Amino acid sequence: MMVVSLSFSIIVVCTCLSKLIHLYTYVGTVPHVALILFLPSVLVPDILVICLSRLFLSRKRTTITYISRLLGCTFSLILLVATAFHATFYYETGTEVTWTNAQRYVRDKDGIRLLLSGSNSAIVCVVLILGISWFSQTYLYQYAGRSLSMLTAPLFRALRIWNMCKRRRGCHSVEDAYDYQSFINSQTGNSHGKVYLDLPPQANTGSSRRYPKILALAIFLYLALTASLRPSSPYSQMSASLPITMLQMIGLHTESQANRYTFSRNPWPFPQLIHTTNWEKPKGYFKGWAPGDNSILAQMYRDRLPTWLPEAPPAGFCKWLSSNHSNQVDREVGDGGGTGRICHETKVDGTFYNPVNDPLRITNQDEEILDILSDSFRNGTVKIKHIALIMLESTREELFPLQQGSDIHNIILDSYKGRKDGDGVNALLSQLTPVAEKITGKAGCWKRTNGSDLAKVPIPEWNDTTQDGYGGINVIGGFTAASLSFKSLAATHCGVWPMPVDSFQESEAQSYQPCISQILHLFNQNKGAKTASNDFLEQKWLTAFFQSITDKYDRQDIFNNEMGFEEIVAKDVLEQRAKARSGLEEINYFGYPETTLKTHVRELIEKVQREKKRMFFSHFTSTTHHPWGLPRDSKKIEYVNTQGNMGWHRDFNSYLNTVRFQDAWLGELLQLFELHGIANETLVVLVGDHGQAFKQDITTRTGTYKNGHVSNFRVPITFRHPHIPRVQYEANATSISILPTILDLLINTGSLNRKDMAVASDLLHDYEGQSLIRPYKSSRNGRRAWNLGVINSGASMLSVTSADAPWRLVIPLDGASQWRFTDLKNDPLELEPLEKWSMEQLVGDVRNLYGEEASQWVVQADAVAQWWAWERKRLWGYKSTK
């Protein structure tokens, strides 16, 4: 029966360990006095789990107890694995995993590989739990049995007395009487028919019998009182017990409240801002702006059928196929590139995006193009034949490039205080991102302590021939639309906001706006079956998506196919085409380094040139993703001090090494464009999918999961072209502005034929993002230019900023986190966030510390975010599975 006691001991140890981790995450968020006061009520679910487990793990030999023991032992094994995962995840990230999110990993082959990346820590955790459980099993099993007997003895004594009274009245025979005492003895392991609570005869007085009853009653009343009086947040979340929350993953109700959505009226919270006096009339391609139920302009847009729309449009343009224009609901559409698609019902039932009726939308198309750009555009020196859209995995703006004197540079220097010469450290750091310096036009400004310049860093990977003063537009202050890679991918490629729901549910729907590749397919379809032309304006586009890792994780491949890419190269294709699999070196749980793509990129360029086509090349880097592995032949450098008590910098140092690797790869990629003679006619757009927080940023947690820190949202956004004048564009913009900016550039550089230009000019006015070649509008007629960010895993938290204010708000959609307010102007690193468990508390504290204007901004930000969250689900046609 040792297995029984060991199983029970495992349950106790796992329950206690998981609870300690759970409570530790809340220690700094509640007053210590309140924590002590409400702690007993918080522990009740865990005590109940332990008591029930003890009853299930009885040593009595009956059919029922055999079954209960089997269930109890199985439960202990499941709980052991879950606790190891829970503890390891917390150790790696400083955040607890949500079990409903865990399904995303468990049900995905590549997700399981991600989980196994922490297997070493998990094994250590399992060994520790088993060791503690082994040595404590006898004591825990017997003590729990005695305690359970003491707790239940009064109840069973009352039942026995009640039964005896009934027998005296003749209600039952003696043979039918139920031996309650034998039952509890069997469940607690007492086979001698003795109650652990029994007292010696001399002490068994009326007074002594009352004390346990009074104590039990007092405990019950205290628990009931504190449970009813304690605030809902965070004590309801603190009461969660791991064995119970695990059931969320395997039970019927797997969806969080924030994930749920039902189609219902979602009124705009500030009707005064969309009053008819603020409506804007149509002009040219601008369809006007007139949000409201009785808006004629909004209805006109809804009923319109663009003259340029083919009878069988490519995927992405299905929103115009309403019942007024087609008798079909789900129907095939024109491919425009050989990839047939289906128009889903969600896009023809009236739930599509209407820019005229969008109260959030602010356009800057009525502004002139920036003066510094207009001359180059007018004289025809800028031609865009090809487009390369490069998404940089986990890339932070302050590391693209790293600059001397920046906050992150100072953090690195501080790690070496008294250990290493500053000039030596700077000499190393100056070689970290030289390609990024060239791309963005932001010099690293590397100098010695005596003020002299450090030697210029050679870039062997890339011979850049761009003239001084040229190179393109670099955005300063850019934010991502999501700290989840694939949601960010959708925002970047389709110019849309992602949904605040867990995982990549967008892959199961159609984007509510045409993606860039779909627009290019429409251009192809408009050209018909023309023969290849020497005039690039008449050439068709070839769309391709390249990454060196798997595209099967979280249904990325489904979304890539939905966007209509004609050529897709990912891990499986690399393995199929490799002459020898041994030549492919896996560097992380997702796949290979980007350098394995080099031959495939070269072949793509040669194919485009041979077939006289234009290229849209989308590429997603990956080496900078956790666990920051490098190929064996890459030298690992110590950029940050990791010696001794500075060992906690190791992850950050590994990340910096992958940043250097990625920088060199970008140089190789741009050199390929140079060697094939397409560099001067290729627009290269670079954007970070999201940032990456480390302990250097926020000591309590790392990574992006349920981490609203600003370092996860500041990303580089750059439009590089050798003939576009250099511009440092300062704006609190997001990655949804990339697609409209690309269209604006194609139009104004004369890089489209007349028919395509008319289509692009019309579509440009449909997107929510502003163009980044025109002055950015931070507000209009009292309306702010709001920027929303979905925080990994999707349904838990939202980040809110506005272009006209320095403040930032993180909203807990699931109620399991604190409201978080920061002032990015005075606290750009968010070292002193204001965090509260309720909106009311936060607004009051913001008013006291930052003033009335800031508190009003918080109220508005919350209202806009709540409206926005439901509106995204409507636009994506998202329907809860409940």
TrEMBL record:
Keywords: Membrane, Transmembrane, Transmembrane helix
Stored SUPFAM superfamilies: Alkaline phosphatase-like
One family name in Pfam for this protein: Sulfatase
Domain Sulfatase N-terminal, first and last residues per copy: 543-746
TM annotation in the entry: 34-57, 69-91, 111-136, 214-231
InterPro entries xref list: Alkaline_phosphatase_core_sf, GAG_Ulvan_Degrading_Sulfatases, Sulfatase_N
Tagged with keyword Transmembrane helix: yes
PANTHER family named among the record's database cross-references: SULFATASE, SULFATASE N-TERMINAL DOMAIN-CONTAINING PROTEIN
Listed name of the protein: Sulfatase N-terminal domain-containing protein
Species annotation: Fusarium oxysporum f. sp. pisi HDV247
